[in-house]
Amino acid sequence: MIHNEENNDEIGNNHIATSTHNPIRQDAFDISDEEKITRIKKDVENILLTLGMDLTDDSLKGTPNRVAKMFVKEIFGGLNPDKKPSASTFDNKYKYGEMLVEKNIVVYSTCEHHLLPIYGRAHIAYISNGTVVGLSKMNRIVEFYAKRPQVQERLTIQIVKELQEVLNTQDVACVIDAKHMCVNSRGIKDIESSTVTSEFGGKFKEEKIKREFLDYIKLDTRF
């Protein structure tokens, strides 16, 4: 048991992902959001009481309910498949055959190892295979997969795979540059460092195309 706990800490402290899929139980949606909020509220109350906080104070009275609603409705809302954005596609009638880049998409996510914020920017590109997608849909896809307990590598892969399916092409790329509060505010407490992850599909694996994309987003990191 001690060995298992040490192993789990090693994985978490080093921010290692164990799967490209979020580890969600099959019964995750057997209860309603309202029931989840009720249960989480009680758990948050217990945490605060255990820490010695006085929940009769006006400032803290509503905290358990606020946190519970935030978990279910906001920062972990992307766990619910019903909230997956519909990504309408259109024929590429104007025959645009060059790279399309959507850069500086804001990313707000939560590290699944310490439940602390991850925040930064995502940069996405694709080359049309006869189909295009609305620009805002790319932002919504990033938001959907970010709103769950995450690992940055997994998030990057999920964004690319989703767009590959939506656009029916392998020619999709994503780079995320983000800060992790579990690194910046605890542990090593390095407030300057950020993490850069990438996933390149199809033509973006070719050095010329990859370099063109990285030049567009002005990222000098070599992949």
UniProtKB/TrEMBL annotation:
<dbReference type="InterPro" id="IPR043133">
    <property type="entry name" value="GTP-CH-I_C/QueF"/>
</dbReference>
<keyword id="KW-0554">One-carbon metabolism</keyword>
<keyword id="KW-0862">Zinc</keyword>
<dbReference type="InterPro" id="IPR043134">
    <property type="entry name" value="GTP-CH-I_N"/>
</dbReference>
<dbReference type="Pfam" id="PF01227">
    <property type="entry name" value="GTP_cyclohydroI"/>
</dbReference>
<protein>
    <recommendedName>
        <fullName>GTP cyclohydrolase 1</fullName>
        <ecNumber>3.5.4.16</ecNumber>
    </recommendedName>
</protein>
<feature type="binding site">
    <location>
        <position position="114"/>
    </location>
    <ligand>
        <name>Zn(2+)</name>
    </ligand>
</feature>
<dbReference type="GO" id="GO:0003934">
    <property type="term" value="F:GTP cyclohydrolase I activity"/>
</dbReference>
<comment type="pathway">
    <text>Cofactor biosynthesis; 7,8-dihydroneopterin triphosphate biosynthesis; 7,8-dihydroneopterin triphosphate from GTP: step 1/1.</text>
</comment>
<comment type="similarity">
    <text>Belongs to the GTP cyclohydrolase I family.</text>
</comment>
<comment type="subunit">
    <text>Homopolymer.</text>
</comment>
<keyword id="KW-0342">GTP-binding</keyword>
<keyword id="KW-0378">Hydrolase</keyword>
<dbReference type="InterPro" id="IPR018234">
    <property type="entry name" value="GTP_CycHdrlase_I_CS"/>
</dbReference>
<dbReference type="InterPro" id="IPR001474">
    <property type="entry name" value="GTP_CycHdrlase_I"/>
</dbReference>
<dbReference type="InterPro" id="IPR020602">
    <property type="entry name" value="GTP_CycHdrlase_I_dom"/>
</dbReference>
<keyword id="KW-0479">Metal-binding</keyword>
<keyword id="KW-0547">Nucleotide-binding</keyword>
<feature type="domain" description="GTP cyclohydrolase I">
    <location>
        <begin position="40"/>
        <end position="217"/>
    </location>
</feature>
<feature type="binding site">
    <location>
        <position position="111"/>
    </location>
    <ligand>
        <name>Zn(2+)</name>
    </ligand>
</feature>
<feature type="binding site">
    <location>
        <position position="182"/>
    </location>
    <ligand>
        <name>Zn(2+)</name>
    </ligand>
</feature>
